[in-house]
Specification:
This protein is mostly helical. The chain has one domain: Winged helix-like DNA-binding domain superfamily/Winged helix DNA-binding domain (Arc Repressor Mutant, subunit A, Orthogonal Bundle). The protein is built from six helices and three strands, in the order H-H-E-H-H-E-E-H-H. It has a three-stranded antiparallel beta sheet with strand order 1-3-2. Strand 2 and strand 3 form a beta hairpin. Helix 1 crosses helix 2 and helix 3 (about 65-70) packs across helix 4. The protein is globular, with a radius of gyration of 20 Å. The N and C termini lie far apart (about 60 Å).
Length: about 170
């Protein structure tokens, strides 16, 4: 196989991985919508819960300010959202053990129980789907996901440094 054929094959594989990632994102968003409907939370609340869970999974709990930034909400809107999520029993506020001046958001025990009960069947489907895949394939997939996550984070950093377009529009009337 020539270098052109190899490059074309790689390009096609990278395109398919990108397409698969979009499909995975769409499926995930649909499951999140169902969770929100079943548990009477708004889609924005589910996104917030997801950010809290991702932060906890990474071992870096999130503050209200960081959540506000991740979600692109105003200070007042994030306060309302956090208060609503606390009132519904999904999250708690805790003092940051590393800096007592900071307050971090954590899943409450009942919030974790709710999430685990809903997502446990998905976990079982996932384990079943991957059961016949060799460990080497799973390790390769993990490396691909890590590379994709890194690329998305770098792009987010680039986007954060871009000036938003002017809110003033040309008069067309």
């Amino acid at each position: 196989m020539g270098s052109d054929e190899s490059a074309d094959g790689r390009s096609a594989l990278e395109s398919q991985i990108s397409a698969d990632l979009r499909i995975l994102t769409a499926e995930s968003e649909q499951i999140g919508r169902v969770f929100a409907d079943v548990h009477d939370v708004r889609p924005t609340d589910f996104r917030a819960l997801l950010h809290v869970m991702v932060a906890e999974t990474r071992g870096q709990p999130i503050t209200s300010g960081e959540l506000r930034q991740r979600m692109g909400l105003s200070g007042a809107a994030i306060t309302y959202l956090v208060d609503r999520m606390m009132a519904s029993g999904h999250i708690t506020r805790q003092s940051d053990p590393g800096d007592r001046r900071k307050v971090i958001l954590r899943y409450s025990d009942s919030g974790l129980d709710t999430a685990r009960a809903f997502f446990a069947p998905l976990g079982q489907h996932t384990r079943t789907a991957m059961a016949d895949l060799p460990d080497g394939d799973l390790a390769a997939a993990r490396r691909v996901f890590a590379a994709l996550i890194d690329a998305m984070r770098r792009y987010q950093d680039e986007l954060a440094s871009v000036e938003p377009p002017s809110s003033q529009r040309a008069d067309t009337g």
